[in-house]
Amino acid sequence: SSHEHKLNFRKSKEECLSYIQDAMLQKQWKRAADFLIFYTESLEKDFSKEYMGPAEMIWRIGTEILCHHSHSSMKEFNSFIEQMKTLGVKRYLKVCLEHAFHLLCNGLIDEAYQNLSLAESWRFGEQTAIQDKEMKLIQAYRGLLDYYSWSKQKTVLLEHGQDGFEDFSVEQEMHSCFRKAAVNLKEIIKIPGVWDLFVKCYVDLLEFYGDHNEARQVLSEYAYNSKFPANPNAHVYLYQFMKRHGESKKSLISALKILHDIVPSHELMIDFNTMLQKSKKRKKRRLGLEVIFAGLDYAGWKENVKAWSCLARQVKQIVISEKHLDWIKQEWNSRKDWWPAFHFSHYLAKRNWQGNESLSYEKALVAGILLGKDCKYFKYVSHQGCKAQVKRFRILKKFVNKHNPAYLRISG
Amino acid sequence: MEFPAVLFPSYFGAGPPREEGGPALAAGWGEHGQVLEAGPGRRQAERTFVPRHGRTGESWEPTEAAAVPFLTPSASCWVPSLTPQDILYRSVLHRKLWTGKSRATLDFTRQLGHFFVDHPEDAFGSLGRLLHKNFHLGNSKLRRKARDNTIRMTALMEEIDRLEARRGCPRQYLTSRLRWFSHLSRDWLFEVPLGLLADCVHEELLLQWASLLFDDSPTGGALAWLPPEDVGARMGCLVYPGGQAMNQLYFQDVVLEELPHSRGSPAQFELNGRIWQVSAARVDGEGFVGVRSDYHCGVWRVSGRTGAAPAPLQVIRTSMPASCITVSPHLPGELAVCTQSGSVYLWSVELGLQRLRHDPQTMFFRDHSPWRWSDFTAHPRVLSCADRTGLQCLDARVPERCHFDLFKVGEEAGCRQGERVVLPMYLGRAHPSQHLITTQFSVYVLDERLPLVPVLKWAHMMKAPPLFAHLTPGGPGRSHKLLLGASCTQELLLLQYQGGSRSACQLAGPPQKLHSISSCLEHLPTQLPHRHRLLQQRLSAPAAGLAAVLQEDGQRESLLVFQLSEAGDVFCQRLTHEAVQPPKPTSRDEATTAPGSSPLFEAPASSPLRSGTEGEEEEEEEEEEEQTFYLSNVEVIINEEEEWDASTPVAPQEAEVPQESCASPEPARAVPSPAAALRYRRWLKALSKGCGEPPRHTWPPTLSQKRLFTRKELEVLAVPSALHEQARQRLRQAMQEGGRIQRWDTPDPQPPPLPQPLEPSGSPDPLSARLTAAWSGDWEKWWDERTSFNIAQRQRALRERRRRQKRARGRRSLSASFTSSLTYQSELSELSDVAPTTLSPGQPPVLPREGSPPGSFPVASPAPDEALLSSQSLRCRGIPKERRKTLRDYLSVWAEAPPEPFELPSSQASQLCIPSSQSQLSSASQPRRKRPRMGF
Lengths: 412, 936
Prior knowledge:
By secondary structure, chain A is an all-alpha fold. Chain A has helices at residues 2-25, 29-39, 54-68, 74-85, 92-105, 109-120, 129-163, 168-188, 196-208, 212-224, 232-244, 249-262, 268-278, 282-296, 305-321, 325-333, 339-343, 346-355, 357-371, 376-387, 391-402, 404-411, and one strand spanning 193-194.
């Protein structure tokens, strides 16, 4: 009968849990809280060897309820979490970390810092891999908070410095904050992951103390280490760092080229294109055309006026100079079967004209050159433009008519 | 498009998932995940942080107490799908053995048995014919001569019948006879070798069971909403399948009002197969609708103008079942199609099919599922391509060379062991480079620009894997609304998230459960228990699709959610944004609604994920529950004939409820609004009209009339006799009165006189005499006489009897030479497995009775003088004993057999075939005219 008893107990436990779940999914927090009181009984006879035990469930459900319950207070929340921390060693660190997050989101940064420090000093036998990760995160977040207090003191110091007043204790405290932050932040960014926040702070620290080499190394490691995910931000940070420190155009271009290879639709590609277009080298200008064409392949760029004007400008240049029409031809070849429907349909002509006149102007120019003066998009927009007596559209019409042979060469 | 300047921190590992997993109910609660510093523009002194999960979202409140039917149910009845009870093994013994162990056992033998019974010709056809002459099914002993090549099967058949009766008995064992027979015949009796057949049946059963556990065919859902070209118009087109086989495709114009309603009759197309998926997208002002059935995919174009008829464009046929169809949101007339052979096609209406990939193997690790999926990405020439192990993106221009991994089930995304991709979806309307991936445990949002690392991950805690998803994009600063739907549990979950371009992706607000179709059951008018059960079955049919429309009406914003069930029902519900006060919300104590809205009540009774024994037990409990429920509600019984007046206020008490609901934090919507209640009633009425006849299993047992009457008897007379007329009239009258006919033969209202006592002719046997005496009321006298019977009389009677027996025995050997051939007999006994009684309509239904077992009486012996009357009567009398039992069947057989050349009048024919029975043999000298009294 003990088996039966266990079964019944399990059954009622599950039932209770499903009631709680149901109430929470309907945002009936009070009802859920009432049921949770009964559910705590399940802790007493925890026979389960399941993936998630009742202790963890109570922690999760309780936290969620306290986050939404209209009558809950921070004090209650803290005392609940403190109880939860004692419920099991396996999730102690996780609970601490989440507690700190909650405090941070509620603006209680000092309390969060204390919590993290306390959690950091926790030791219990051998740590599992997950606990190890959690510990590293705790240290990293503490480092982050150290960084914030460092930057606070830095501002204070800089303000005071302007007054010609120096406070050694503040300065010392600031340096100790730096040390604490740097140690912890340095640790986590060695591990593969997405650490944008930590990397930025660490690089800021290093830059302040003039350690540019270390900063550059950290950033290039973050961007180019193949164990790390292909995070566009890593490349952006490196590019921005290089730009800040006035590195050569060449290295900037090579950094952006790599970004272009992984994310052709990144917003920096417009800067990249401008940079390339200005270049005297033919190869780079060619790359510039490729970059802008590739960017406009993406649905997110469809109504990007800047990008269209970049393309229009470059295409116009090429057509006027009548050199390198083959570049356009080559780019156009892989797109001519779908760009007309994707960008230059009659429907879009109407919509663009109504929605954004300059967009329709740039697009009409490109369409007129790539598809000829009989293209639907160009015809509609130029007609409307002339009808509305906008000067640039008349010029546009003339330009396209004049350069119709270019179209024939591109398409042929 | 911008990329968030700072992403939430996360670890990135490689390799197979390390975290052990299983479904966990509370896994999605109480986590902030990670935090980030809130965006710039604030003073450094007070830094604020935002969590990845758990920030507050928009409040969307349902306006109704339950989902409301949107369409009237189709006229054709729905055939409920397979349930676990149908194929799982269940018996008392089994239940005892496996109590507490959730293991399902397929009832393989039952299925095989069904096959043998349902298709005997296919199972045993040829050998059955060959052995025809060698199997004897009659009751008689076999003659010595026949015994050489014929075996008697009667006992075996009886044994089998007994076995059937003892089904489920723990002490069930096979008799040696059965064992002997099965051992002997196992190898040769079957048309298809038993092993082979068993393999096939078993394989099929396993497939059926697997699809009961998880059926991926409806992935994506068969419901689609096509918005009008004009954004402000409160119109749209709903595309859904219908009909008994779900093979009709409907395009229904819908007017969005407080409760959406259809306008005009839908455009209808009949397709060549069950519709599994309907996918729609609007490109360049035109709607394109892709439809997938098992072996056919089709595409329709719906012009943006309202009222324009949808035009079918193209159909393709696949040799393997298709598993996916998605319509390109970028280019008109482009679709992605996948088949279970592992092929991915880009299908252009103009250019035809282009195969991008063909790989029967899964991408990242081995998984047996042939399911494939494909969708579009931010780049119109790049398609995503998924199987259960992950998602890759392929460039359609160079599919072999140009691809990258977007999602992998593994440590990269922090997956759990055993996790598999269930539904990928391109979230282009929210953000051009975002994709949704659902697994049985979690939902992931991925950004193409940062492959492999989910920008959002959340454990959805749904009981069944989400097979349907719908995205309602939010404008700038607003959250995107993501609806997830499961099939067999009908779960519907609303998630909100935001970010992706300027700020990192965050989950907004706790998830919210929406009404399932089955939840409206408690709001329907009370039904009779059996109807309630049918209704419950219908309403808890697995969901088959999901669609939603965001309706903006000035300040007021509402989300209309449509849900389609496998029975073809479309239900809808409206959610309004917090800023708007829901119309007339009714207040009721939270506690009172609690049980009604608990998951216990709405779990469909036929949820296929439970093991058979468990399900059965619950079913029993449920039945009990139902009864008590109805006893307390007996006063409310719906009358189908009643006309429901549209203007009748359905819930009058509602108006009296004070509007204090605003004070309550969660307004409990216990009563449906009058409009919704009206919808429920109309729906119910249409349902009962359309499916008036209850499903088969609730019919009373029916008897075939074929064998009750002879052909002759069923012939309609040209001029109905007076008796016929009278009988008909009485029948009609009885039916009108709802009474019954007690006696046929006495049309007059006078009480019938006592039947004339049977004239004792000759010397009746003691039993007849005793019965006759008892009938006429002087039984006591008879007893006295009997006791005072003198010995001399007894002796004389005995002597007389012996002499008669002797004579009969002598004649038996003679009559045997006159009996019809043995084959004739076996034909008879084959057809005589049912023994219906023969009745002639015009005569009193007195059945021939056999007082005692046939073995205790000698052979039929008519009067000796009659014995030599004619050859016909001889033949009749020569009928051996064993045939007597089947003679009633013989009559009915006659009715089926081609009319014999010697057409006898029915009365005469029956006379000829009367089994000689007790009274005949005891009253040898009884005059012949008495015989019809025996029943014919």
